[in-house]
Predict the 3D structure of the following.
Amino acid sequence: MRITMIGTGYVGLVSGACFSDFGHIVTCIDKDAAKIETLRAGGIPIYEPGLAALVQTNVQAGRLFFDTDAREAIRSSDVVFIAVGTPSRRGDGHADLSYVYAAAEEIAGMIEGFTVVVTKSTVPVGTGDEVEAVIRRANPKADVTVVSNPEFLREGAAIEDFKRPDRVVIGIEDDRARAPMQELYRPLYLNETPIVFTQRRTSELIKYAANAFLATKITFINEIADLCEAVGADVQQVAKGIGLDKRIGGKFLNAGPGYGGSCFPKDTLALSKTAHEAGTPLEIVQSVVTANADRKKAMAGRIIEAMDGDVRGKTVAVLGLAFKPNTDDMRDAPSLDIVPALLAAGARVQAYDPEAMNEARKLMAGPAYCADAYEAIEGADALVIVTEWDQFRALDFVRVKALLNTPMIVDLRNVYDTATMEAHGFGYSCIGRPGLPLPNVSARKLA
């Protein structure tokens, strides 16, 4: 099949590359000429494990193309995907659908023959109806059907998620779309992937409901972690104990500094707004939004408290800036709350992230950005782990202790255990678990 993918952001680029790897002919379109030139030259504008090799393989095989002009690609396509951004709209928290509707209007003028137009972007309930209305207003003669096909990709594991998904959800209002969509995902039938055909509005809501539920699990275990600290329990054992119940499951029960990223923050907020306007407010989801925002803001306070309640003139080493490992995505990352708050409190911050340094520099001008973890640690009065990259899970603690002014680690991801920390002589503060006595940061190590 011939496919056009409008948008070469995270969803569009990953989806386009994976569809081409299935054997389809895919043209990815973007108005950003510089980005298209970068892609044509073999560069990848985002970090996603395995994506560069996948793109290169399919470009060389003649199945994957990049262009700024959509006309020829759309005219010859069986399916046209809309995979543009839907950020939170400033002022009210609703999803900004202007890019989606602009893409729909552009597509309308280029369609020839029966075409399936698919919204891959995450959109509120009813967006597909409006996309169809936009196309029909712009081109009343267009022979088109609009489909909802939400993505469920985890950053850092997107290719695996696309090729071996838990399910594929397809929302249709016209049975003519069923066969093309089945053909599009035919390779997944070999893996017996569940293909869920449903109504368009139901499909749109499935995406929002899934993200809201996962965000709720994260927020729940974070609040349980606070209770564990108050009563002397261990949140990791609590999470294991409840996660073994198959009705609950163990995933997304890792206590930490709060969720971030491209999906959960904006999707929970947009779902809450949609429900409020529909007259059925989702009080649980709204509480999750509020609790997560408060948690990220509170993390700097935990660090300051661990450092004798005063970080003025002290140096904090921050390891991890991206919202999660294996991505360079800084959107709504906890570090964006933590680092500025530390700087505002008078600390000097030395920061390092394996992939997100360039993005972080665009958003935070205050920290000293370092070449590696050990450069960030050198001369610091405390080490703080904000993102659980694998390379931070096996630090050389003899070297770390020698580089730190004070042997203190604040572990916001529970990467380490107290036995390891005690064996190496560190003060240790963690989330929802008993830590170790913290040294007096004011008592600097003698040179």
Observations:
- The CA atoms of residues 179 and 298 lie 51 Å apart.
- The radius of gyration is 24 Å.
- The mean pLDDT is 95.
- The chain has two domains: 2-198, 200-447.
